[in-house]
Every structure is written in structure tokens, then in C-alpha cells.
Amino acid sequence: MATMADYTGLKPAWCPGCGNFGILRALNKALVEMEIEPHQVLLVSGIGQAGKLPHYTKGNVFNSLHGRPVPPAIGAKIANRELIVIAISGDGDAYGEGGNHFLHAARRNHDITYLVHDNQVYGLTKGQASPTSDVGYVTKTTPEGAANPVNPIALAIIGGASFVGRSFAAEMVHLTNLIKKGIAHRGFSLIDILQPCVSFNHKNTFQWYGERVYKLEDEKGYDPGDKKAALDKALEWGDKIPIGTIYEADLPVYEDQLPALSKTPLVKQKIDSRRVERLLAEFA
Amino acid sequence: MSVDFNFMIGGEAGQGVQSVGFLLAKVFARGGYHIFADQDYESRVRGGHNFFRVRVSKGKVGAIADKVDVLIALDADSIALHRAELAREGIAIFDEEKAKGVTSEDGSLLSMPLEKLAEDKAGSKLMTNTVALGAALAGVKYDLNILNTVLVDWLGKGDAADKNIAAARAGYEHFRSQHNDDFREIKPLSESRRMLLNGNEALSLGAIAAGCKFMAAYPMTPASSIMEYMAVKSRDFNLVMVHAEDEIAAINMAVGAAYAGVRAMTATSGSGLCLMVEGMGLAGITETPIVIVDGQRPGPAVGLPTRTEQGDLQFVLHAHHGDFPRVVLAPSTIEDAFWTAVKAFNLADKYQLPVIILTDQHLASSYCTVDELDLSQVTIERGELFSEKDDDPSEYMRHKVTKSGISPRAFPGLGKALVVTDCDEHDEKGHLTEDADERTAQVEKRLRKMVPLKKEMGKPQKYGSQRAGTTLIGWGSSYGAIREAVDILRKDYIPVNMLHLNELWPFPTEVVSDAITKAESSYVVESNATGQLARLIKAETGQGVTGRILKFDGRPLTPAYIAEAVKKEVR
After folding, report:
1. Which domain holds residue B18?
2. pLDDT attached to residue B482
3. Which residues, listed in sequence order, are joined to residue B291 by a DSSP beta bridge?
């Protein structure tokens, strides 16, 4: 059985105090607690500080282009359904450069888990506004203040994702449990993770998030299966920010609808060129 | 007696031009003839002007002819636009209700009540095109029973087939009742089961035979029919075709699937490929084998969406920043499209790189009879694979520096080896690095694969007398047209030969250089505006060609066009 030591990767090159450390630890804990071995996991990341995470743990790693971890994650999942596929992005990667992939992966409801480190700012390129920066947020590229942010939680719910959650990098147990739920869920699982950037975002700090987040698990009567209620929670932002499983549903999964995947994973199937003989006959 | 007979069917989009063209090609193929057929259509669903040409020959044909023996004109435009193309004894069949005032002094334009016959004998004017088809077959006294069989094969037994058979018979009988026997007769040669394939079908069959298990693409003419064919066959052949949200997603999905161990491809056209370029580089640096089909059409941007060009050669050779190895193949014929697909997957796997197949609208949508595709000749070469029996999986390095440049592959999740790769420059283990020595070692390792790769490349094809002073050099889909142009010129006592390339990168430097040196004059023949092959030849051999025979109006090169152009050059 894998232990935390088995999930020790290269030494992170993140800034001291970065919210990413919490996410890395929570992911490792989730994998260990689920008794998953590193070779069973595929981590597909994009570019940004979040995109480096797979190198700092253990597993199969496909560190992809900026904005593009989701499409190769989908391709790999279809090629080998037995892989546990986790895509990892930052907010710029997921909701800016990769916005179209995010929308359509949710719509088709692919069986992958998507962790988005959402710090509301660009870290790797040093402090520009991101798609989730709060309105009016002043940066080098937005001297008059950022425009309206995207709402990834609402987009994912409306878009068709069957699991949508949010957690906070400082809430280790909460985040670990949410990642476990996301991995266990069949279908597209978005986990948007509030991740303070200690170097470039001096507004949305650990303290700022800490004062605002509250756990949906503690809210009596909240039903993540109720889409309208989930959308109400998705629209909450500001003085109160809900974290936890916001939406969860049993929806058709893309990979389940592919006849070629019904038995053996594609990668384990033998190639038999002679079967094409009967196709040739169709053209005679 | 030799037969080289040409039909043309013209009409608006929606009138059934394509169906009649395909059926004509099929009935003559069934009668033992060789066929080459091409399609000319506009980017619209209804209206406009489309035509389909079917060349029927006793011997193999690989291009269309410029003259038309029987024109089936489903509208007035088809007469106006194409009557000048009629051969000396050619005829046009049309419906004067649709083309009022059309007359001919020489009796070549034969009016028939096509639409009325369709309504009276087959119950619907939707059958007008089939009535015309029957009339055209009567014009060459062909055996109508062959068409009946083809219709049943195509539509299945039942009402649809019965109505079409009745419509064809009505057209056939009406023609015979109005005209005597003074037309050319084409008799079936034999009962033949020779395949009739278009370029995209041949390429798709090659991909399936090669064991392609994953395709992702976004619809774009002229590549869409590859995705459609793969999707339709996905259930029976255990493969997956994902209709992605855009071309960027498509190529990245294919890369992900290939990384995970299955043979994967995508297909698009020029501006779709522009979007895929970033993903091509991803395949380059992560050394992931993928096959990319570029069905060329005239650019830039949307250009002429439904027409043909060979304008992407320089683009695919250079697309993406940085240096990494790639392969560029360009099938010369429809049959070659099958074998090119098979080879593309093998080279991709063995050398762990992107392989680009350059076809074009002309090759993609033209039909040709193909004698046999011998599946026993299909080999599957997956390249060097890491074995956990022989080596310790904990030591596995996806980008291990080796003498050949090839690092054995392992597939994620199939063993204990962790497969790590990165679109950043990486070390041997696949982790990102900025170390100068590691960077240099990885770049050199990747480029070193070109050495063994070069030995895999096929030789350019030669045709015609090697003593001829003039050499025509072409690539890709123009093979049939250039080859026939050589024959035409020989009959006119202009000795030329052909050198034709269907594998363009790595470039066959020696053969091309040698051919240019031996020839007194050499001309590239290309469907583009600047002579992109000529530039490649200059870059790789240091030699210039004498001239460039080019065509870039969106229409395919024809033997007559090439022959005329050569005559102007050499006289």
C-alpha cells in the first residue's frame, strides 16, 4: 500500500508559503487514503505554477501546454479507462487559455477529475489579472481594474459537469475529502481550489479567504443534488464563499457511451489488420 | 478497341449530381472498366453549380480528361458552362423544360422530358437524376441490369430501389425510342468486383488496418468524411472517434491517447491545421507518435473551401517554432493513400514523432478503381518498447538519451514504470529542466532520430524514358495527371519523363539532385502559386529547376493542361 513517502517527488520550486503546498499535500493524502498506487494515476497538467505540481509528487505525468491539460487527459482516459486521470490547472490555464476545453469537457461529462488552483491572479508571468480576478482588481495589465470575473462553478453546473466542488488550500481535511469525492465520482469532476498567491495577490490572501469561506457540509438541509440550489450557491461570492460539494448528479458519462470501451481498454486490444477484409468488400 | 470515355453530370447542389456520378462510376466498375472520377462542388447545400466527372477506361487511369463524351445536364447552367467541353461526337442530355431555348445545330444537345418521366414512371420528380442516368446509359447502350444490381446493393431491396430502377428504365427506354443506334456502344468487359474508392476512404481503411484506435477531429472540408467513416466503423472495429470542440482540442486529445499507448490520429485542412500547430510541437517535444492528415485546399484562411491546392507543403515542413523531427508524406494515388496511412503509423511509432499526411480535396473526393489491397502486406511496427521483464521499472526514463535517439516507450498504467513527460524541456526522466547540458542532449537526441528515419523513406517514382531531356517533377495527388501528360507529349514527339515524390520529408536529396543533374531541363508541376517544391529542392539540393508549371485556381491539374504548359516551355 502506498504511503505519503511513495508520493514524494521533486523539491517544489514554489514561493515559500504558497497555497499550492496545501493542494499538493491534500492530493497526496487523498491518493494514499484511497489506496491508489502511483502507477495507477495519470496527472495531466498545463502551464503555470499549478502545472508544475505533478513533478512534485509521483505518478504518470503528462505536463501539457498552457490551457490544454484537459484534451490530452480525455485522450488518455479513452485510451486506457483503467487509469485514474487527474487534470491540473491554474485559473488562467483552465478558464482563460483553456476555457473552451473546460466548457466542452463539462458538457460531454468525461470521466476525469479537474483540480483548478484558483488564486485569481497570474503567478508564473508575475502578477497580471486572471479570468477570476475580482472586478476592479488593478494589475500591470489592468490599470483601470479587471473586468467581470468568470464564475467557474456556475459554468460547470450549467455546462453539464456531474460533480462541482470548491475548497480552500488551507483547509487540509476538507480539501483532501473533496478530492477523494471527485476521484471517486464517475463523470467530470471540477474542484475549484481557493489558493492564495503570497507573491502577487495581496487582496485575496489566506486571511481574506479564511474570513469568508464556510462549509456546505455544515449547512443543514443543503442538497447538492438540487441543481437550482447549487446554482444559488454558485452565485455566492464576496462576504460569504461556500466550499464543499456544491453540485453532484448521476449523469451519463461520455466514456460509458463508447461501445469500443465496453470490454477491454483500447490500449490492451490487439491489432488485427485482416479484419479490414470485410470493409474492403463493401467497396466492391 | 480501346475505351476512354468521359461522362459529366452537372446541376445544382441538391439535384443529386453526386449520386448519379457515383452510380455511373459504380456501374462501369462492375462491368470491368477502370474508373477515375472527380467532384467539383461549391460551398453550399442548395443551388449553385456542381459537377461530377467519370472517366471510363479499359486500362488504368489516374486523372480526369478535359473532353466530355456524354454530358448529363440537370440544369441550364450545365449546358452553358460545359457545352464547349463536349468531344467531337459528344452529346448532352437535358430537359428543355429546365433549359428553355437551348438548341444546337449539330444535334449534340438531346432534350428529354426528364422531370415528367420521373413523375409519371417513378412517382416523384426527385427521381429526375436517375431518369437522366438511365438515358445516359442508353446513350452508350450499356447493360441496364448492372445498374439495377448496383441500386439494390446501395439502397437495399424495397421501395427506394424499385423507384430508382423504374426511373432509370424510363430514361433508358425513352432515349432508345427517340434515337437510333448511331452512338458509341460500351459493352461490359467482365463481371468485376474491383473496389471503387475515394482518397479519404482509402486513407481511413489504411488507418483502421494499421490499428488506429483513436481519432479526434473537428469537421472541415475536405477531411470531414474521414472522421465520419471512422465514427461509423467505431463500433465494429473497437475504435473511438471524438468530435472535439475545436482543432486545438482534437490534436491534444490525439496526443494524450497516443501517450497512453494507442495509435491515434487527427484530420483537418489548412486553417484547421494552423490551430493544431501548437499541438504538433507538443508531440514533437514529448516524442509522442501521432498521425495528422492535412487535406489541402486553397488558402490562406478559408480560401476556396471546397476546392483543391497543394499549397501547404512549405507550411507543414516548418509549422511550429524550434527544431524537432517530423515526417511528411503525400500519397500519389488513391491506392497509395491506403499504404501511406499504414506507413505513417509505423513511422510515427518507431520514431516517436508527428507524421503529416498531405492529401488534397482532389485526392480526397476523387474515386478510382483499385485492384486489390493485400492486407497480408500490412505490417504493424510499434517501435522500441520498454520491458519490465528485462529492466527495473523504477529506473525507467521516458526520454533516455540513446545512440539512435530513440528512447523505448512504456505506457502509463500498464506496468509499474512511471511515464513522465513534459512540454517544457525535460531531463531524461521527463521532468522539466533548464539545465544547458540536458537541453542540448535532448535536442540532439530528438534530431538524431532523423538518421535511421531517412533509411525508411521510399524512393521517388520515375516514369518515361530516362533518356528524355526534360524531367517533370511533381508530388502528391498529381501523379496520375503528370504521368498521362508524359504519354501525351510522347505521342507529340516531345520526350519528357517524370520524377514523382510521395514522401517529402526527410527529403530524398540524392535521387532528386541526380535527376536534375541528368536532365537538360527540369520543371516542377504543382498546384500552388509559387512552386513550393521548387523551393524545397533548391534548399535541399542547392539546385534550381528550369521552370515551374503551376495551377492555383482551385481546380485540379489535368494531363492536357500540363502537356500544353510543357509545350509552351520547351518550344
Report:
1. 4-193
2. 98
3. B265, B355
Cα separation of B407 and B411, whole Å? 13
Q: Are residues B245 and B366 in the same domain?
A: yes
3-class DSSP assignment, residue B69:
strand
- pLDDT surpasses 90 at B28: yes
**Residues contacting A221, CB < 8 A, separation 6+:** none
Task: Share the mean pLDDT of chain A.
Answer: 97
Q: What CATH number did the domain enclosing B93 receive?
A: 3.40.920.10
Residues B30 and B117 in one domain: yes
Q: What percent of chain B has pLDDT over 70?
A: 100
The DSSP annotation for B234-289 comes to TTTTT-EEEE-SSHHHHHHHHHHHHHTTSEEEEEE-HHHHHHHHHHHHHHHHHT--
The Cα–Cα gap between B155 and B172 comes to: 20
Q: B240 and A103 in contact by Cβ < 8 A?
A: no
Residues 195-224 of B with CB under 8 A from A: 195-197, 201, 205, 208-211, 213-214, 216
Same domain, B163 and B228: no
> Does residue B388 share a domain with residue B364?
no
Q: From chain B, pick out residues whose CB is under 8 angstroms from the CB of A64.
A: 252, 256, 282, 423
Which residues of chain B lie closer than 8 angstroms to A48, CB-CB? Answer: none
Q: What digits encode the pLDDT tens for the residues B47-66? A: 899 999 999 999 999 999 99
Q: Are residues B365 and B264 in the same domain?
A: yes
* Architecture of the domain spanning A4-281: 3-Layer(aba) Sandwich (3.40)
How far, CA to CA in Å, does B197 sit from each of A65, A256, B368?
A: 38, 33, 6
Q: Is B403 on the interface with A (CB under 8 A)?
A: no
Q: Do A100 and B252 touch (CB under 8 A)?
A: no
- Given B318, B345, B377, the domain boundary residue is B377
Among B193, B213, B239, the domain-final residue is: B193
CATH code, B211? 3.40.50.970
Q: pLDDT tens digits, residue range B190-229?
A: 998 899 999 999 999 999 999 999 999 999 999 999 999 9
Let me know whether B30 and B162 are in one domain.
Answer: yes
The span from the CA of A49 to the CA of A198, in Å, is 12
Same domain, B497 and B426: no
pLDDT surpasses 80 at B33: yes
Q: Per-residue pLDDT tens for B508-563?
A: 999 999 999 999 999 999 999 999 999 999 999 999 999 999 999 999 999 999 99
Please tell me which of the candidates A74, A82, A275 has its beta carbon nearest to residue B253. A74
Assign residue B481 the CATH number of its domain. Answer: 3.40.50.920
B237 touches chain A (CB under 8 A): yes
B214: three-class secondary structure by DSSP: strand
- A45 beta partners: A63, A88
Going by pLDDT thresholds of 50, 70 and 90, the confidence category of residue B151 is very high
Identify the CA nearest to B543 among candidates B531, B551, B535: B535
Q: Cβ of A63 and B432 within 8 Å?
A: yes
Give yes or no for residue A278 having a pLDDT over 70.
yes
Q: Which of B432, B265, B123, B270 lies closest to A56 in space, CA to CA?
A: B432
CB-nearest partner of A72 from B195, B259, B416: B259
What letter would DSSP give residue A121? B
Q: What is the pLDDT of residues B352-395, one digit of tens each?
A: 999 999 999 999 999 999 999 999 999 999 999 999 999 999 99
Q: pLDDT grade, residue B181 (50/70/90)?
A: low
**Count of domains for chain B:** 4
Average pLDDT over chain B reads 96
| Surface of A (84-113) touching B: CB under 8 A | 100-101, 103-104
Same domain, B414 and B554: no
User: Which of A52, A79, A104 minimises the CB distance to B214?
Assistant: A79
CB pairs below 8 Å between A and B: how many? 192
